[in-house]
């Protein structure tokens, strides 16, 4: 039996083999439409079973985000200027292939980034992008207030930004503690050693204070119990759908 961490690393270059090996009918990845007998395990401190789709390497949050984009936004049909931070492998080539989009990727280090940039000091004009995707980035940024202000600045009036972060529903207030320096301890508390905070429910309020009109969308409510299990979606996870008023 291949150890889980090795299996996950192998999956990045062996997707076609994995997709073939795990093919079945029980679970479906809506991103590529393929079905499998099971998904793969994934996790850092806590390994989650049956969550990583073999073909796209999407996780629960990726599949939820895709379904929301597809069903509730004009992302796949309307010409718009899009900025995508730290582009995920599950989405990058698919979004890049959409000819109606003016699609730009950005990150400080990612080889997939068109523009290498610091999210706290972006080299873009104000009011420029119709749609911004910035998922699981802000928890890595020491000055997330400045980053949020920059995201708001470059979003065009009437535009939409989806800004997913890992958060804890039972936690009211976001927690940070720079005095914790042990990587193992930080991973246990913050989810990963390189996360600088664990967000609470005040995350949505903070986005609103920046200026966004924020809707915390529980999109899994739109699916049956059977569909949630088939797609392996994160039950009750809230999508931060942020808009900038005209």
Description:
There is one protein chain. The protein has a 7-stranded mixed sheet. It has a two-stranded antiparallel sheet with strand order 1-2. It is of the alpha/beta class and about 250 residues long. The longest helix has 13 residues, at about 60-70. The chain folds into 2 domains: about 5-60, no CATH class; about 75-215 and about 235-245, Vaccinia Virus protein VP39 (Rossmann fold), CATH 3.40.50.150. Residues about 1-10 have low confidence and may be disordered. It has 8 helices and 11 strands.
pLDDT under 50 segments (min length 5)?
Answer: 1-8
Number of domains: 2
Query: Which assembly state applies to the chains in this document?
Result: single chain
Strand segment count? 11
Q: Strands of the largest sheet, in order across it?
A: 7-6-5-8-9-11-10
What is the CA–CA distance across the termini? Answer: 56 Å
Task: Summarize the amount of helix as a percent range.
Answer: 25-40%
The major β-sheet equals:
7 strands, mixed
Mean pLDDT: 93
CATH architecture label name of the largest domain: 3-Layer(aba) Sandwich
SSE arrangement, N to C: HHEEEEHEHEEEHEHHEHE
CATH class of the largest domain: Alpha Beta
How does the overall form come out from the CA principal axes? globular
């Amino acid at each position: 039996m291949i150890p889980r961490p090795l299996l996950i690393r192998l999956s990045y270059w062996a997707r076609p083999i994995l997709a073939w090996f795990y093919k079945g009918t029980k679970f479906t990845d809506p991103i590529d439409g393929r079905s499998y007998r099971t998904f793969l395990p994934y996790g850092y401190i806590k390994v989650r079973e049956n969550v990583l789709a073999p073909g796209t390497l999407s996780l629960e949050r990726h599949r939820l985000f895709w379904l929301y984009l597809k069903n509730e936004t004009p992302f796949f049909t309307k010409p718009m200027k899009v900025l995508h931070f730290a582009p995920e492998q599950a989405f990058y080539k698919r979004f890049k292939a959409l000819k109606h989009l003016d699609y730009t990727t950005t990150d400080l280090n990612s080889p997939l980034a068109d523009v290498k940039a610091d999210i706290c000091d972006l080299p873009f004009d104000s009011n420029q992008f119709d749609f911004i995707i910035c998922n699981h980035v802000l928890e890595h940024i020491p000055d997330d207030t400045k980053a949020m202000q920059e995201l708001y600045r470059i979003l065009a009036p009437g535009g939409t930004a989806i800004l997913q972060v890992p958060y804890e529903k039972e936690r009211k207030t976001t927690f940070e503690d720079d005095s914790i320096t042990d990587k193992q301890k930080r991973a246990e508390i913050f989810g990963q050693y390189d996360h600088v905070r664990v967000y609470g429910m005040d995350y949505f309020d903070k986005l609103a204070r920046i200026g966004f009109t924020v809707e915390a969308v529980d999109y899994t409510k739109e699916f049956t119990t059977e569909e949630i299990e088939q797609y392996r979606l994160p039950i009750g996870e809230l999508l931060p759908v942020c808009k900038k008023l005209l």
